[in-house]
Amino acid sequence: MSRDRTRAAVAGLALVAVSAAGAAADHPVAATLPASFDRAWAAAGRGLLAEGWTVDLADAPTGTLSTGSRRLQGDAGGIHARARRVRLTLELTPAGPDRTRVSVRRQLFERERALWVERDRALVSADALGGDHVERRVLDAIRRAL
């Protein structure tokens, strides 16, 4: 394996580890919707967009949607920057013929950038956004999009 491929593989594994650590720290907010998986999947994408989130990962076979991250506080520019950020992960699972369970999990993390290298570190406290307000707003937007 070439040196560049090795670095890419290590970076990918580190990203997965950080994402898993952030996901384990927060509790999901869930709801069962009166819609087929396909209808709920389309509504989830529309609901996220309606709330101003971008979708970075959409994997229908596993029922996973992951948003881009948003900066909550901290520096965004310069050679060295440190900011607290948040991203959402939605998991959709069929719960019957015309029912789908949607869970929304918040991942809070700190991103540090030095020159062109970014490093994310999972944070445990999710109260920076005021309880589960963000997750409930997304679920309400999905219900409206059905």
Q: Please work out how many helical segments DSSP would assign.
A: 3
What characterizes the major β-sheet?
Answer: 7 strands, antiparallel
Low-confidence stretches: 1-25
Strand content: 35-45%
Give the CATH architecture: 2-Layer Sandwich
The radius of gyration is: 17 Å
**Roughly what is the average pLDDT, rounded to an integer?**
80
Q: Give the tally of structural domains.
A: 1
Shape: elongated
What is the CA–CA distance across the termini? Answer: 47 Å
- The succession of helices and strands, N to C, reads HEHEEEEEEH
CATH C-level label: Alpha Beta
SS-derived structural category: alpha+beta
- What is the CATH T-level topology? Alpha-D-Glucose-1,6-Bisphosphate, Chain A, domain 4
How many individual β-strands?
7
Please give the share of residues in helix: 25-40%
Descriptive account of the structure:
This protein has 146 residues and is an alpha+beta fold. The protein has one domain: Alpha-D-Glucose-1,6-Bisphosphate, Chain A, domain 4 (2-Layer Sandwich). The chain has three helices and seven strands; from the N terminus they run H-E-H-E-E-E-E-E-E-H. The chain has helices at 3-25, 37-50, 133-145, and strands spanning 29-33, 55-59, 64-67, 70-74, 80-96, 99-114, 117-122. Strands 1, 2, 3, 4, 5, 6 and 7 form a seven-stranded antiparallel β-sheet that branches. A hairpin with a 5-residue loop joins strand 4 and strand 5 (80-96). The radius of gyration is 17 Å and the shape is elongated. Residues 1-25 have low confidence and may be disordered.
